[in-house]
Amino acid sequence: MATDPVAPSPAARPDPIRNLWQVPALLLGLGAFVSVWQGWVLAGTPGDAFLGDMAALKEEYEKTQPSPKDLKNKLNKVAEGVETSEQAPLGRFYLGSGYVRLAEITPNLDEAHGYWTLARQHFGLVSEKQLSDPADGPRFLFRTAKVQAAVGLPADVSLAEIIRLVRVLSAPPPGEDAGETHRLIADLALRATPPDLKVAKLELTAYLTTGIATPAASLNRGQLRLADLCLRTGESEQARKWLKPLVNDTTAPPDVAIPARALLAQVLMADGNFRFAARAWKELRDMSGVPTSLRLTAAYQLGVCNLKSADFDAAARLFEEAARGEGPETAAARIQLADVRLRDPAPARRQTAVALLADAVKGVRGSAEYDPSLVPLADAQAVFERTVSALLSDGAFEPALETDRAYAAICSPGRDREKRAEILGAWAAALQKEKGGDPKPKFKAAAAEYVALAALQPKTEAKMDLLRRAASFYRQGGDPGTAATQIEEALKLPDIPESVLVPVWVELADALLAANRSDEVWGVFRKITTRDTPLSTSVRYRLARQFVDSRHPGLVPTGRALFEQIANQENVSAAEREFHERALTELAHAQIREGNFTEAEVGLRKQLRIYPYPRAPESGSANLLLGVCLLQRAKDAPPADAKKMRDEALAIFTQIMTDCDKAAEKRGRPATEREKQLADREAWLRLQAALRVLQAYQQMRMPIELLTEAARMRERYQNSVEELIIWSLMYHAFKQLGNTAEALNTRDRMREVFDKLPPSAFPQKTGEYSRDFWLKEWFSPDPK
């Protein structure tokens, strides 16, 4: 029918299989729905969640500026699951890394230390081999080194370990944030032996300019540390540069502002600017929140500043405050206070230094244990020495010994015994002077200290000196026998210097005589005479000189015998000629003193043939002595012989005067010490010759010539004992002329000259050069 629907053409009919691709998807969806509905599939595993937490933690700690709060939360999440996770090694690594980063961005030191410790614990539970990512191995080693440097090093860490850690930290893995690395390297450099201050300063400077997330408090502490290093290396300008912003920052927390001001005060002191340093210490003391230990430091250092400005009273008050505390300043303050007390005029106040010094070194067992950071060891030792000296001046011998006992804790080896010997010797001398007790035990105790000291000395000269001191004190202690024994021990020492040997022989002979062992003196003499070297000739001469000069009845003959031995020596070598000539002169002088003028003349003429006048060094003295012998012999000679002797003597004296004048004119003003000595010797020779000229005129009864020559000489030798001698010869000349009035007038002039001369003008105890001679011979109630 026309009204029936037309059947679709084949081209328009739908493909029965064209949507079959949708069937699997539909079936899958229906299956999933049914599975969930039936509970056949699990929803997300814990392992997947832990991996997510680790990834979040890593992402957080690798941020340039991580959030401390977020970092803590993510650390806690990972820490909760790390124990049971198959990824525990990687989790431990992430936890350690997170805690390292958290420690670096935490301003509180104690809190940061806790995070470093947690990082160390987690890193300790994992090894590099357990990390599959190749990039994680270097990071693990680097961050582990950080942790070790921060909290993992023992007090006695080796230098090799320090160097290893510095090498690791100096080569961070790519992309690693610097954080605390530079500060940690600086810490390691300071723990080296010796501390490497240069590296520490460079690393701290880098620390202050890197690390974007480093807290301001940490940077402030770095500035303080760097300023301190600059102070230690003498770079005060750099120290002030780092301190200035901290001191001027009114908002700086107390833990920064307070130490910064203290360090600035120290910098000012290092610069010698004690006035401004004192102001800085005062400002620090006025600040609130200053720790007790730092307040103690401020008191001590302010006291030092007051010392520099000579305000000793203010310094003493501050040292008293510091001395009552507990800390390194306490001992130093006691030493400083003791030194200030020594300035007190009251002896009782000075003695308070004794207890202060004893307390200052209590518990110290040797100079190596003494802390020299505030008072250097040498300065502390000097205070002890000054205290002993002050107490000795006060006669406070027992307190001085107490100080010496305390001094033993810090003095150089043996110095306390040396001071003890000094104290005991001074105590004995005081007892002897004041007759307040028996000084001998103290002298002997002092001697025993010197003997003990000598045993500690390795060198001959020092040992010799101490044994000689001991011998001297034994002599004063009434024990010359022990004194001689100590000197004999001294003479056994090797390589004794010539300058020391002579006086030691003399001391031995003197001690033997005092010990009634005079027969042993000749044994000493024989030991000396058996030495035949040129050196021993000089020693024998000097020894003879000291024996004779001692005027000791037991020593003078020995000295004379030594002179005679040297003078009679044959085949004199060039090295011995000087002392041979001197011995000839000394022997002649001794013979003249004994009145043996003939023998003396024979020896002098022999000497002048061997050592001609005026070239030989001693020929001037020999010629003078020859003239003296001739004048003395002429007194008892027949008139004809007497005239010849006096004429020869007058010629000798006149020649000496002429030669001395020529030498002085030729030489001019002495330019060297040697020339001065020669000039002094020539002046003495000329004076003695001139006086003998007057004496010759007197013997030859030539008063006019005597008075003429004396008038010239008197003016030259005004205000001296020689002027007195000249006046006395003039007195005799007026007597020879029969002019009694002028003779008495001359005697009055002599008295005027004598009264003007001080006692020091008379250098001898007998003869014309002694004061007693003139009082007795000329100015007694019954004068000559």
SSE blueprint:
Layout: H1 22-38, H2 46-61, H3 68-81, H4 88-104, H5 109-123, H6 136-151, H7 159-169, H8 181-191, H9 197-209, H10 216-232, H11 236-248, H12 254-270, H13 274-286, H14 292-308, H15 312-323, H16 328-341, H17 347-360, H18 377-394, H19 397-407, H20 415-434, H21 440-456, H22 460-476, H23 480-491, H24 498-514, H25 519-529, H26 534-549, H27 556-567, H28 577-593, H29 597-610, H30 619-634, H31 639-667, H32 673-699, H33 703-716, H34 721-737, H35 740-756, H36 771-777
Helix pairs in contact: 2-3, 2-4, 3-4, 4-5, 4-6, 5-6, 6-7, 7-8, 8-9, 9-10, 10-11, 10-12, 11-12, 12-13, 12-14, 13-14, 14-15, 14-16, 15-16, 16-17, 16-18, 17-18, 17-19, 18-19, 19-20, 20-21, 21-22, 22-23, 22-24, 23-24, 24-25, 24-26, 26-27, 26-28, 27-28, 28-29, 28-30, 29-30, 30-31, 30-32, ...
Structure, explained:
The protein is mainly α and 784 residues long. Among the domains are: 50-214; 706-784, no CATH class. 71% of the residues lie in helices and 0% in strands. Helix 23 packs antiparallel against helix 24. The chain is elongated, with a radius of gyration of 50 Å. Mean pLDDT is 87; it is low at 1-43.
